[in-house]
Branched-chain-amino-acid aminotransferase
Amino acid sequence: MKQQTFAFTRSENLKQKPEASTLEFGKVFTDHMFTMDYSAETGWHDPQIVPYAPLELDPAAMCFHYGQTVFEGLKAYVTEKGKVLLFRPDKNFERLNRSNDRLCIPRLDEDLALEALRQLISVEKEWIPTAEGTSLYIRPFIISTEPFLGVAASVSYKFIIILSPVGAYYKEGINPVSIAVENDYVRAVKGGTGDAKTGGNYAASLKAQEVAAASGFSQVLWLDGLEKKYVEEVGSMNVFFKIDGEIVTPQLNGSILQGVTRDSVLHLLNHWGYPVTERRIAIAEVVQAQKEGRLEEVFGTGTAAIISPVGKLSYGGETYEINNGVTGEVAKRIYDTITGIQKGELEDTFGWTVEVK
Ligand code: COI
């Protein structure tokens, strides 16, 4: 691609950067953002880096009414030697376009989106925190902007990238969380939008999350929307089980999000020689394995938390303690390896990191 330098308006009011020790997830934003507009006549146009600021949108803008939006999440790190690294950003822009297809949003040029991200990160380098467990979370997203109350695909859109220095997603960090298997609500069904990264999936998850939290659980384990028998995801993450030495994750079926971390975990496990299977897995099988002492580990995988081990699982009125409530060996090994590669401390065998100059 011909290298393009985007228009840049520097902020005149630079913010104070937060103390790394105070960082939570997604509450603080940097000084600048990338924006680009779409209209049916001109296509995607007017790419620029501008001061981070509220948007002005018509109250009838379609994103407010019918949820025609998509988003992504990825992270930037700075290595001990001061190199800035992104982790598999191409995968996120690929997935953004798959989500676009599902939500009838026009596709983006993935190379242009990556170049936009590089230039934005380059401007905001100083915002990347370096303390253990911190990173710069990147949130690319697209909203429909046409002022129209008819249910149809919008004719105009805005693509935006914002950046947020973050600490751990879950207060537990890499320590195990407690999970309730969800029997009433479902997150997604095959044929719906479960495999697209769109806001509605997350809105649909809130009720179950609230109910679980009221009973003292951090997250829910989602079952399939049809039979409520098969495991799909955990919270907003993909899920893995270690049963009798074999590592199993639900196979992608149209209602499960194709996680970038999920894919990285599968690569690592195969590389290390663990038996790994992507298949349908029934909750009854998981519970049976636990009762027979064969369920060795359960963990979620996602960009925000990377790995989140499950220490307690509640199902059918019983609460089971997984792996004595401690982080399992495999979960820890994956967490250390992925974060090590992301921070440039371990060899990037798979060519996953992309340097930003
Ligand atoms: C992730 O695990 O990265 C997610 O998708 C959570 C995000 C919506 C904050």
User: Anything to note?
Assistant: The domain at 177-342 is CATH 3.20.10.10 (D-amino Acid Aminotransferase; Chain A, domain 2).
